[in-house]
């Protein structure tokens, strides 16, 4: 068991990278603490598998270091790293029984009595609901069952530094998927192993993980609890990717009076405004989640005139589209609240309106 540190890590599959776009992993610093249940979340192609393979040793990073408890691992081959990795598609021995498949990692490692092996295999089979299949040949199993065996092979060893799951439930049907994810969480609690679970599904990430690393274009743009990612997106991509739909964004103009949009100043804190000014950047965005926008018919200082252009009924709530100058803002309201017919006004309650410069969150310093 160990803490896994990625130090000034970067990786390009190209021998002569000519710019950032040639890097699958762009320079990053990151620590996975011992015993954490983590999700590595991001869209296809953002570098999730590359990052896992660098940790397990299947890929040697072109720059930077992988440290386990402070010790450099770069040159150590995968089999010496004590990492269990579970892939998208099952990796099992078809001709062996389920029992022998599960026992294999322990026999291979050596030093266990057959009795100890049986105990461990039964424990894992029990958790994965494979107890009735132990004597079957692996080739006769369904795709789901094969993947469970594959996961079981990662779980039998107690000595592992970490278990890395690379979208392991892709081939599994939704009902079972949900149960398996719960099981993984139980296993995590029982064995206190560091787990990194790769997925592109935010729901899967937040039901499994205590903390999510959100990856975008080869970088971890935010590492936090599901709540932190929702309430305080550190990067516009986090705002966009988390939530359904994601954050509303619009681009104000910086004037002497402040941030202007659609003919009105949109107030933000003095300190934030100062930071925006001193950045010198003209890539400025305001962001607010549909859940936090208020909708009504009042007029007032910090209310902005809009037109309601669409209402979608989603059962317990409605998603309302309003036209705000040149953009459509989405507003989520409870089903029992009336939706104004056409002319309406929206408001941006103070803590929820976020300011981004060059896609990064700008905040007032904490007092
Ligand atoms: P993810 O798992 O998030 O979908 P990957 O780590 O597989 O992302 O890929 C990240 C980037 O690296 C992508 O642009 C992909 O095309 C590229 N890539 C992945 N594996 C290789 C490889 N073996 N050789 C060259 N490029 C690769
Ligand atoms: Mg992948």
How would you characterize this protein structure?
- There is one protein chain.
- The chain has 367 residues and is α+β, with helices and mostly antiparallel strands.
- It folds into two domains: 4-240, P-loop containing nucleotide triphosphate hydrolases (Rossmann fold, 3-Layer(aba) Sandwich); 250-362, Nucleic acid-binding proteins (OB fold (Dihydrolipoamide Acetyltransferase, E2P)).
- It has helices spanning 48-56, 98-109, 114-127, 143-155, 174-191, 202-208, 226-231, 236-241, 270-279; strands at 4-11, 25-32, 37-41, 63-68, 71-72, 83-86, 162-166, 194-199, 211-216, 219-224, 248-250, 253-255, 258-261, 264-265, 284-288, 294-296, 303-313, 317-324, 327-334, 343-347, 354-357, 360-362.
- It has a six-stranded mixed beta sheet with strand order 6-7-8-3-9-10, sandwiched between helices. The protein has a five-stranded antiparallel beta sheet with strand order 16-20-17-18-19, with no helix packed on it. A four-stranded antiparallel beta sheet has the order 2-1-4-5, covered by helices on one side.
- A hairpin with a 2-residue loop joins strand 21 and strand 22.
- Helix 2 crosses helix 3 (114-127) and helix 2 (98-109) packs parallel to helix 4.
- The longest helix has 18 residues, at 174-191.
- It is elongated, with a radius of gyration of 25 Å.
- The two termini are 38 Å apart.
- Bound molecules: adenosine-5'-diphosphate and magnesium ion.
């Amino acid at each position: 068991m160990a803490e896994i540190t990625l130090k000034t890590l970067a990786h390009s599959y190209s021998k002569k990278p000519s710019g950032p776009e040639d890097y699958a992993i762009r320079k990053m610093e990151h620590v996975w603490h011992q015993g954490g249940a983590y999700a590595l979340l991001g869209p296809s192609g953002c570098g999730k598998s590359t990052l896992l393979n660098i940790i397990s040793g299947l890929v040697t990073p072109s720059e930077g270091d992988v440290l386990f408890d402070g010790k450099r691992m770069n040159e150590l081959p995968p089999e010496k790293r004590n990492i269990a990795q579970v892939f998208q598609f099952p990796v099992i021995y078809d001709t062996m029984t389920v029992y022998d498949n599960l026992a294999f990692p322990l026999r291979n490692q050596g030093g266990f009595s057959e009795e100890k092996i049986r105990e461990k295999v039964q424990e894992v089979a029990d958790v994965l609901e494979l107890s009735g299949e132990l004597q079957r040949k692996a080739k006769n199993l369904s795709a789901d069952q094969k993947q469970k065996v594959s996961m079981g092979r990662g779980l039998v060893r107690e000595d592992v530094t970490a278990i890395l799951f690379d979208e392991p439930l892709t081939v599994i049907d939704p009902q079972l998927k949900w149960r398996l994810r719960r099981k993984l969480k139980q296993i995590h609690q029982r064995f206190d192993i560091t787990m990194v679970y790769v997925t592109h599904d935010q729901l899967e990430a937040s039901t499994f993980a205590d903390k999510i690393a959100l990856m975008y274009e080869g970088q971890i743009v935010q590492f936090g609890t599901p709540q932190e990612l929702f309430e305080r997106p550190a990067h516009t991509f986090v705002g966009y990717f988390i939530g359904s739909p994601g954050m509303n964004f619009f681009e104000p103009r910086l004037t002497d009076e402040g941030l202007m949009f659609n003919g009105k100043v949109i107030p933000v804190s003095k300190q934030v405004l100062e930071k925006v000014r001193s950045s010198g950047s003209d890539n400025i965005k305001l962001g607010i989640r549909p859940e936090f926008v208020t909708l009504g018919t009042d007029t007032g200082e910090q209310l902005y005139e809009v037109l309601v252009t669409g209402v979608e009924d989603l059962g317990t709530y409605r998603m309302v589209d309003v036209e705000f100058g040149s953009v459509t803002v989405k507003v989520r309201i409870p089903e029992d609240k009336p939706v104004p017919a056409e002319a309406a006004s929206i408001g941006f309650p103070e803590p929820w309106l976020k300011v981004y410069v060059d896609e990064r969150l700008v905040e007032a310093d904490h007092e």
